[in-house]
Each structure stands twice: as structure tokens, then as C-alpha cells.
Known about the structure:
alpha+beta
Amino acid sequence: MSWCCPHQEDDRCRLRKKKCKTLTEGCVLTDKVELINKRSNADEKFKNSGKHK
């Protein structure tokens, strides 16, 4: 399944006024989508949290 963000313009987020990084703080897609890419920000946060042990 794909998604569309109304704030994304090319590779930038108009809302955050920064490069688009899905599911980072301030992203409107947080808690609404789940990424299955192992390189996603959510996976990195989980790895760094120590909860995976």
C-alpha cells in the first residue's frame, strides 16, 4: 500500500520546513502509517531504545 502526504513537495515538508523524513517528530503520518522498510526511523528508534533485547 502507498501513502500520500499533503505537506510533501518534492523531497521537502512544507509543514516542518525541512527535508521530508517520514515518521519524524512533527510528521502528520506518525501513528497513522507503519513502515516496513528496515531502515525506517521507527526501526532505528526501537533499536536504540534497548527494548529489542
